[in-house]
Amino acid sequence: MKFAWLMAPDTYWDEKKTFITAALESGIDHIVDVSDAEKIRKLGNLTIISPDEDADIVLVGINGEGDGTLELPESLEYSRDAEIAFELKGEGKRVAAYVEIRSKAHEELARRLGRTVDYLILVGEDWKIIPLENIIADLQGEDVKLVAAVADEEEARVALETLEHGTDGVLIEPAEISQIKAIAELLEEIESEKYSLKPATVTRVEPVGSGDRVCVDTCSMMVPGEGMLVGSYSGGLFLVHSESLESEYVASRPFRVNAGPVQAYVMTPGGKTKYLSELETGDEVLVVDSKGRSRVAVVGRVKIEKRPLILVEAEYEDRRVRTLLQNAETIRLVNDKGEAVSVSEISEGDRVLVYFEDSARHFGMAITETIIEK
């Protein structure tokens, strides 16, 4: 998952606090700072990256520590930064190296450090794509996260998308607070997973008795057209609409998806699934819209109650899938026009949106294996 860190501005505390607070409110909770760690910790549950050996992530190569921001040593066979990083790693600490790329020799130093540290922060005054490509390509097999220092959204996009994979993260060095929010929104856009939804034809709708059904209440507000991918078969998940629409029976609950029975699958980030019964507060699920665009939502609570169920079966080309839902007017699927349609109104011949997957599932992860679900 792509991420962003904030370089705390070198200014008076009240202004610095404003930038850090804006970052935290945008979901950025890693702060690089060399002077105010104790004050920063009081602002929230933040991860501090600094040269202090008691920091959450110890930083080398900045503020006079090592040679990353100083003149290069006569020979790259010896690097004070690499020596410090190696010693810290030996003590079980997480380490980040900060290297300004000003020459080919600095690229070599970055590669050397990248084979030791957990994070490699790459800085360029006049950032060029080629040095970044070289370092990404050379370190792609190493266990290191690459972080590019950027000033704005445009630089962040270049860094995160270079060589298709891009850097793992960006270090924001903003001049204005608005740049923090813009980069946070860019990260959400890049991390959004797209799902190809197919119009499956409904072949059967039938009440089947009662069972334990699951309501998933998230910490996000959903809008009409959004819901979650849920189904009895991992190979075919229906787009179950959120309760974001008004009803004559109950008020809208735009944070909720009345998802289905306890054994059903729900799509989670990274192309994985979980059983609905496994979800609990703090877990992440995917909110998906009728175009297949997704975003991550945090589960606030899960509510399981015994309710009457209805079976919906649908077919697309030669594939037939089923799911069970609560038999109630407020429970909706999404049709091929992107409209929410109640299970009480769905009938054979209607077309609803389904995500089909060729892989089987093993502990929620897609695998290449033959499994029959019926």
UniProtKB/TrEMBL annotation:
Top-level taxon of the source organism: Archaea
Name of the gene: aroB'
EC number: 1.4.1.24
Protein name (database record): 3-dehydroquinate synthase
Keyword Amino-acid biosynthesis: yes
SUPFAM superfamilies: Hedgehog/intein (Hint) domain (SSF51294)
A GO molecular function held by the record: NAD binding
Physiological role: Catalyzes the oxidative deamination and cyclization of 2-amino-3,7-dideoxy-D-threo-hept-6-ulosonic acid (ADH) to yield 3-dehydroquinate (DHQ), which is fed into the canonical shikimic pathway of aromatic amino acid biosynthesis.
Occurrences of domain 3-dehydroquinate synthase C-terminal (ranges): 200-374
Keywords (A to Z) from UniProt: Amino-acid biosynthesis, Aromatic amino acid biosynthesis, NAD, Oxidoreductase
GO biological process: amino acid biosynthetic process; aromatic amino acid family biosynthetic process
Protein family (similarity comment): Belongs to the archaeal-type DHQ synthase family.
Catalytic reactions on record: 2-amino-2,3,7-trideoxy-D-lyxo-hept-6-ulosonate + NAD(+) + H2O = 3-dehydroquinate + NH4(+) + NADH + H(+)
Record has Oxidoreductase as a keyword: yes
